[in-house]
């Protein structure tokens, strides 16, 4: 299946094509092996996008698709994880993980339209993306098969490293971007939600990332010296509008909201992390991620939820968010358990409506205030100056009731007056 190069009459194949070194080399190699390669590039808002269709055709593709999936990506993949407060291992906002099912769904649709038997991607045999792409493919179209060059011995024995890929590209006339030092750029994956940097010097977890890895965020020492205040409106947990209160600039469609917050958040060095994470395949990896808009949206969404969600619903939702994040990271977007969790998450968001104001400055998104027509906050009850219908005489009975189990435990575990340990 994916561990060898199949033979047969129908060798039409859709390759998820980024235009980078790996997929450009793989496209040419697959064409040399007799595949009719249809290159498919998903426009998810990444910047390096010019001339990609022409490059695919020059590299050996018989046809090239370039589809604008920006609104679909933000509305149907980014916003659901914002509603669900998904975050992997407490830090990673899942920017790469989210893109894979979005790309796979469109890739499968093209494969069906073109009568293809195979799909392919450029992921390595050590990473998470191979799992994400292929689980999505098999969930959406059981009849398709995945051809993965990095798991085919003939391919990975020929290409032992990036220098072999570069030599092949040069031999075949495939243009590859080089940095100023005439070295290949870092391994990067970008979309409008985030950008990731991996490999090269970053493979040493002790190495400080070069400043050149800043792309979506300005280095902290060079960011704006004055703050920006923004206001974000939510409806059923989704951001529906954002406004810069300093300039009056607004955005109100999913893609434009994210682009707006990426730009302004990046100017303030918001949303950059450097982490070591646990891959699904069982190894640790180091990555530098920039997610300015997503970081701001998460902060605002958490805040409007605090105002509108019941305490116990919020706690249960937080427990489910851990599993939700794990499923997204591991590639189970199109799974029954994911469908169940998304319905559960969306049920909690029915009354998450309102607005949040934040100050953006020097790496921080600081909440200034919030309001909601569905607020559960009662100013009179919480006030130290107004009784507000809260009978303080009930507090003593509440406290004594809560203390009963503590007393029972002490009498059982520490009899005869022995003191409880301090920890």
UniProtKB/TrEMBL annotation:
GO terms for biological process: argininosuccinate metabolic process; L-arginine biosynthetic process; urea cycle. Residues 186-407 form the Arginosuccinate synthase C-terminal domain. Pathway: Amino-acid biosynthesis; L-arginine biosynthesis; L-arginine from L-ornithine and carbamoyl phosphate: step 2/3. GO terms for cellular component: cytoplasm. Keywords: Amino-acid biosynthesis, Arginine biosynthesis, ATP-binding, Ligase, Nucleotide-binding. It holds the Pfam family Arginosuc_synth. Signal peptide: none annotated. Residues 12-175 form the Arginosuccinate synthase-like N-terminal domain. Its EC number is 6.3.4.5. It is an enzyme of class 6 (ligase). One of its GO terms (molecular function) is ATP binding. PANTHER family: ARGININOSUCCINATE SYNTHASE (PTHR11587:SF2). HAMAP family: Arg_succ_synth_type1 (MF_00005). Homotetramer. This is Argininosuccinate synthase.
């Amino acid at each position: 299946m994916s561990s060898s190069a199949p033979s047969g009459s129908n060798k039409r194949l859709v390759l998820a094509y980024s235009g980078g070194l790996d997929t450009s080399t793989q496209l040419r190699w697959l064409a040399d092996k007799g595949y009719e390669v249809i290159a498919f590039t998903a426009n998810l808002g990444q910047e390096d996008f010019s001339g990609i269709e022409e490059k695919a055709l020059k590299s050996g593709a018989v046809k090239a698709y370039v589809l604008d999936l920006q609104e679909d990506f933000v509305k149907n993949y980014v916003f659901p994880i914002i509603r669900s407060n998904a975050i992997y291992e407490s830090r990673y906002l899942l920017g790469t993980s989210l893109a894979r099912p979005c790309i796979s769904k469109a890739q499968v649709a093209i494969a069906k339209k073109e009568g293809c038997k195979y799909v392919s991607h450029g992921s390595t045999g050590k990473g998470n993306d191979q799992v994400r792409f292929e689980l999505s493919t098999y969930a959406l179209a059981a009849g398709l098969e995945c051809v993965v060059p990095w798991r085919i011995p003939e391919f990975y024995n020929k290409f032992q490293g990036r220098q072999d890929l570069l030599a092949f590209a040069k031999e075949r006339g495939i243009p590859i971007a080089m940095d100023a030092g005439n070295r290949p750029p870092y391994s990067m994956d970008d979309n409008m939600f985030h950008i990731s940097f991996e490999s090269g010097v970053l493979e040493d977890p002790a190495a400080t990332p070069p400043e050149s890895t800043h792309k979506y965020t300005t280095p902290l020492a060079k960011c704006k010296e004055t703050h920006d205040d923004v206001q974000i409106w939510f409806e059923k947990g989704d951001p529906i509008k954002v406004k810069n209160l300093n300039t009056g600039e607004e955005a109100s469609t999913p893609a434009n909201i994210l682009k707006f917050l990426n730009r302004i958040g990046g100017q303030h060095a918001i949303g950059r992390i450097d982490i070591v994470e646990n891959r699904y395949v069982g190894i640790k990896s180091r990555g530098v991620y920039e997610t300015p808009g997503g970081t701001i949206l998460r902060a605002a969404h958490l805040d409007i939820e605090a105002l509108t969600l019941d305490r116990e619903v919020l706690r249960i939702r937080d427990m489910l968010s851990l599993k939700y994040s794990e499923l997204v990271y591991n590639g189970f977007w199109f799974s029954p358990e994911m469908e169940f969790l998304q319905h559960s998450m969306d049920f909690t968001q029915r009354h998450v409506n309102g607005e949040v104001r934040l100050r953006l400055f020097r790496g921080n998104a600081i909440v200034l205030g919030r309001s909601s027509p569905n607020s559960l906050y009662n100013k009179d009850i919480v006030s130290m100056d107004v009784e507000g219908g809260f009978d303080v005489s009930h507090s003593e009975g509440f406290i004594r009731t809560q203390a009963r189990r503590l007393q029972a435990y002490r009498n059982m575990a520490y009899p005869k007056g022995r003191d409880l340990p301090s920890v």
